[in-house]
Amino acid sequence: MTREVRGDKERFGDALALVRRGVGERAYQAAVILVARGEDILLHDAAGEVGLSSIFDIASVTKPLVASLFYLLVQQGMLSPEGMISEVLPLRSTDPGFPEITFRHLLSHTSGLPAYRPLYRELRETEKREGRKMWGVAEGHDRIVDAVLSLSLESPPGTACVYSDLDFLLMGRVIEAASFTTLDRLLRRELAAPLGMHDTGYLPLLALSECETGRLVSTGHSEERGREKVGDVDDENAAAMGGVAGHAGVFSTAHDLFLFAREILRARRGEGRVLNRRSAREMTAKVETPPGCPFTPGWDTPTSGEAGGSQAGRHFPVGSIGHLGYAGCSLWIDLSREITVAFLTNRVYYGQDNPRLKTLRPAIHDAVMEALQKG
């Protein structure tokens, strides 16, 4: 595919060679990388059958966007990080700790909820039992939310840090209930449109013209749905909820994620278009309890103790923030030097358990940061 390459290809030659190697090694079928320092894009390149404006399923990179929506509601006086979810959602669980879960607990993965549940399977069973369609419609969405609200906790709120899709699944519903607006509409109106993120949103097949759908990147075949996923969210729980959820479902481009990262950096200086300085500072600071938790309210941080090292590589310093998406995308920001690396791939095109990106991505980040250090 013919594509425009922007930036200093020679300077980032080692990183680009690794990105292209990933296509050959089937770590992914397609990839776009963008590197920026401050306001300046230094590199924007693609590998595989994609262009620079290709639109990817960013999976869990949805979570920082949803966290930003939460803080926009905080700025509007609708919510507070210390508020209880019981103030907004009807709890079903008999666990005595559930009413003590705060919004901050959800944002920082310290609620005590399990890491994951295949709730879509339970919904399929309910469909068969009751003989009517629930997948992808409002009732299915509500059934899945109610199922999470009925769970028992694995630890008391605030005492353990466990990355959980269920935290942000509930956070998405909290935001909708507090704003009386669906997440897809709120994201467009409050974040994507003001920041010029024109290709970012849920349900891209409804937003793109027929001619534009060729920009959507496939995430492979779904056994559950019996079809290829192109513009259809990869995550099965999010799909069962209609494609709009707090933990996954957003599609975006590398350039749009740069615009989002730029807003975070600007807001930390008090120059944000939509986020104020207090929100940006709180979102990008690690929570203090429980001790050692690597998460901020909405972001992950590099953790050198991970098996095989951090997915950010060796050169993103303490204080950096980022997030991975299961389908193969990532966004990392060195807050101190204002360096942004958006790396979008479709890892799951070759299977949900495709492991090849895990070792390749840190090496790409290392090559990028080493090139920047030389410049």
How many beta-strand runs? 10
Q: Kindly identify the CATH topology of the largest domain.
A: Beta-lactamase
Largest sheet: 6 strands, antiparallel
Oligomeric state, counting identical vs distinct chains = single chain
Average the pLDDT over all residues and give the rounded result: 95
Q: What is the level 1 CATH name of the largest domain? A: Alpha Beta
User: From the alpha-carbon coordinates, what is the Rg to the nearest angstrom?
Assistant: 20 Å
CATH superfamily of the largest domain: DD-peptidase/beta-lactamase superfamily
Order of helices and strands: EHEEEHHHHHHHEEHEHHEEEH
User: Residue share in helices?
Assistant: 25-40%
Q: Roughly how many Å apart are the termini?
A: 30 Å
Q: What is the overall shape? A: globular
Give structural attributes.
about 375 residues; alpha+beta; Beta-lactamase; 2 domains; six-stranded antiparallel sheet; two-stranded antiparallel sheet; 10 strands; about 35% helix; disordered N terminus
Could you provide a short overview of the structure?
The chain folds into two domains: 6-64 and 184-374, DD-peptidase/beta-lactamase superfamily (Beta-lactamase, 3-Layer(aba) Sandwich), CATH 3.40.710; 81-180.
Q: How would you sum up this structure, described in words?
A:
Helix content is 35%, strand content 11%. The chain has helices at 13-24, 62-75, 103-107, 119-130, 138-149, 165-179, 183-195, 204-207, 236-240, 254-268, 277-283, 357-374; strands at residues 6-7, 30-37, 40-48, 56-57, 221-222, 227-228, 251-252, 321-324, 330-334, 339-345.
